[in-house]
Records
---
Amino acid sequence: NQVPSDSSQGGSLLQPTKQAKKDDNKKNPKNIINREQCREFKMQEDKDWSMFKNKKTLKWRLEWKDTCKMCPRWHSRGDCLPDCNNAASHVLCPEILPEKKESYRKYLKRLRRDD
């Protein structure tokens, strides 16, 4: 599921194929589902999950509490792993404080602009 890429431009030697990216966007039936996502947090239809996993954008993730970050998989993709390191942030939309919502909207705007 991977094809060689040009490593002279700083890329890795293998890049995921389009099929691998599609598979990565599929939801695993073992995952827990966020049944009350904030509408404005949902991943855009024309985007794939890779925008959240980019090394550059990982450092932009927001603090949820001292122990974890706000989980983009839960809040934007709508599902996550039961043993996620950021599980403390797996709350429903009505439970997110307004200032956290605003910060997450800014984070998404930055991700989408950079993509």
---
Amino acid sequence: DLVEKVGDLSDENAKLAMKCQRLEENEAQHKEELAQLECVKEECEVLHQSMEEAMEMATGMSDGMAKMVKNHKSSVQDYQRRMVELNAKLLSANLAQKRTDAKLEEANAQLIKA
């Protein structure tokens, strides 16, 4: 009986170790997505600053300014779309991590009861 229980505990420990590894992988992916999101935010800030400077320099040159604003607007929309996509990925990763955390907690609770 004791050997069987030790075997069961060893199996459960292996499962928990795999869950921990998946959680660590999810966490690493989450950190990577956060870093990507931060890069996009920085790019947006630079883009907005660039737009402001361009508009100040283009005073009196309405044709050139209109063309530049159009190009910048398109870039901002692209960055906003990328931010929405990355936020969705981040939310998905957070949900997956929460589910994994809950499963891990449940498995730990079962292991403690045993």
---
Amino acid sequence: LSCLSGSDPLARYLMVVFIFPAGLIWLFIFWSFTLLLTKCVNEKSWFRPWKLHFTLNTAGLGMQLGYGTMAAVAMKPLMCYSHPNARQSLITYPSLFCGEREH
């Protein structure tokens, strides 16, 4: 992810945070796409649109599976460690000091 977001810790954190919502949006975009594609192809075709309740079920399963990961990501800005000089840095972004403006 650092090649996409650069070295800015805020951009890297936001990139990780928006992975799950982007996945849900992607899922519903493809559900809409299958509905539109069904109108364009022959009705006797093998292609069938996704059913809304199956799409919602898949989205719900993804949210259940991702809950632990998203909870851990949400806690990242609160996990600090102490330096010998009594300052604290974030564990995942050591260049950011806890309690400063950027934090």
